[in-house]
Write a structure and sequence with these properties.
CATH class of the largest domain: Alpha Beta
Number of domains: 4
Radius of gyration: 33 Å
Distance between the termini: 83 Å
Order of helices and strands: EEEEEHHHHEEEHEHEHHHHHHHHHHHHH
Helix content: 40-55%
Mean pLDDT: 88
CATH topology of the largest domain: Nucleotidyltransferase, domain 5
CATH superfamily of the largest domain: Ribonuclease H-like superfamily/Ribonuclease H
Structural class: alpha/beta
Number of strands: 10
Shape: elongated
Strand content: 15-25%
CATH architecture of the largest domain: 2-Layer Sandwich
Number of helices: 19
């Protein structure tokens, strides 16, 4: 590492790149032109803790075609009329997209590690340069080739704009996105129509409980099955139960006032008058907690809660039976458990769980909640697309200067392409995409169902035996 004797600054590492043959093809049509002169210039390159330069020796040629009068040869790794190499540009893009750094942190990183002082305008130019290299047609062809048949849809909001996102949860990649000014039914229909026009064949769609998906999905794809997000449904049900517990807590009576003077039995502290109210407020989450996650201490606390008010045991039993419905391994088992819950007289006569029970009675909603039980590898929640939306929102916190629609679109495409390049279906040639298929009822189960019928039903509907 050499330094300048007068200033003491580090001397740059200079590497010469030459491309000046006597004849060179035209960059537009390929017809060779003759060299007129040789031009020399320097561009900045990357070197750790030391300035680096490329000295370019290129030829200027007289064109033999009608494309232009003169043209200049270019060296691989350096664009025409550019003061930095492509390695510097790619480093800036990696810091923005891969490392999620802000513009000012990118400037500081390049100055500390590579002794490069770049402007904010150059950083935005690198951003545009990376977006110009994105091949969106090739990506969409890859999506059509590897799509599993399951589409997970959700929207994310950024600067009062809506980004509709569709992912494939089975093969773990983003299918498409659309940036819209508002989250409306018209924009949602436009996004789904765009997916259909591109040739996407969807067999199962997974969404949250938004009413915008109810009719739009069926109109785009005939025969599609709609899986509602189970997490959103159970969240609404549990929030209703929490509201009922809160009403019970607010109506609890305080204990009688303690008599004045010293307590009769020493060493036993007095309980406050509203100890039941505070005790229920502190441990109300145990009434809706999953049974598999309850410890022995939690079970002892639940026994004390049931003494505070007997209606809490009814709420606890309803929450337990509700969660057991969706632990079934088949759609028929889930329907059977739901029927037992709805027929329970304890739950019918309790007004505190009326809203949660009424929501469960809706046959259309319940059938959409158990679609995943009729298919292999179909998720029952929309967590896949929501995780990607949360990751994008987290990255956007560093982009206060990149919130225009044009820059949001470019940023999303660069993140999408980066994930695509690292996807196992692209890196491993032996990997094959997964496809969804329906669950088949075994012949043994069919036979047991047939024998469980009455003799009259067996005569009317005989079972078909396979050869």
């Amino acid at each position: 590492m050499s330094r300048n004797r007068l200033s003491g600054a580090l001397a740059p590492v200079i590497e010469t790149k030459r491309k000046a043959p006597v004849q060179h093809p035209c960059p537009c049509c390929g017809r060779k032109g003759r060299r007129k002169r040789v031009r020399t210039r320097e561009v900045k390159h990357l070197a750790h803790q030391q300035p680096a330069l490329w000295r370019l020796v290129v030829g200027v040629y007289a064109a033999a075609c009608a494309c232009s009068k003169f043209f200049t040869a270019t060296v691989d790794g350096v664009a025409l009329r550019c003061g930095y190499t492509d390695a510097v540009r790619q480093k800036v893009v990696d810091l923005l997209i891969r490392d999620h750094l802000s513009v000012y942190k990118v400037q500081r990183h390049l100055k500390e590690d590579f002794l490069l002082e770049v402007s904010i305008g150059f950083i935005y130019d690198c951003f545009e340069w990376a977006f110009a290299q994105v091949d969106r047609v090739e990506y969409w062809q890859w999506v059509l080739e590897h799509f599993s048949g399951v589409l997970c849809i959700d929207e994310v909001h950024d600067c009062s704009r809506a980004i509709f996102v569709a992912t494939d949860p089975v093969n773990d990649f983003t299918v498409a996105f659309l940036l819209a000014p508002r989250n409306t039914q018209r924009n949602m229909d436009r996004f789904l129509a765009l997916l259909k026009a591109r040739g996407l064949r969807v067999r199962v769609a997974v969404t949250d409980g938004s009413p915008r998906y109810k009719e739009a999905l069926v109109e785009c794809w005939k025969g599609l099955e709609h899986q509602l997000c189970l997490f959103h449904f159970l969240h609404i049900e549990m929030m209703d139960l929490i509201s009922s517990i809160r009403r019970i807590r607010l109506r609890l009576r305080a204990m009688r006032a303690h008599p004045r003077g010293r307590p009769r039995k020493r060493g036993r502290p007095r309980k406050p008058r509203r100890w039941r109210w505070s005790f229920l407020r502190e441990h109300s989450h145990l009434l809706i907690k999953s049974p598999a996650k309850l410890s022995r201490d939690d079970l002892r606390i639940l026994e004390k809660l049931f003494v505070v008010d007997p209606r809490l045991k009814t709420i606890r039993d309803f929450a337990t039976d509700l969660q057991e419905i969706f632990r079934a391994t088949s759609a028929r088992g889930a329907r059977r458990r739901r029927g037992r819950l709805l027929a329970n007289p304890r739950f019918k006569n309790e007004p505190l769980i009326r809203e949660a029970r009424t929501r469960l009675e809706d046959d259309e909603i319940f059938e959409k909640l158990i679609v995943s039980l009729r298919w292999h590898r179909v998720p029952r929640t929309s967590n896949h697309v929501e995780r990607r939306n949360r990751a994008f929102r987290l990255v956007q916190k560093t982009r206060y200067k990149r919130r225009s629609p044009r820059m949001i679109k470019r940023a999303y495409w660069l993140h999408l392409i980066r994930d695509w390049e690292r996807h196992p279906l692209c890196t491993d040639p032996k990997m094959r995409p997964d496809r969804v298929r329906r669950r088949r009822v075994s012949q043994r189960r069919k036979r047991m169902t047939y024998l469980a019928r009455s003799p009259r039903q067996q005569t009317a509907r005989p079972i078909k035996r396979s050869a």
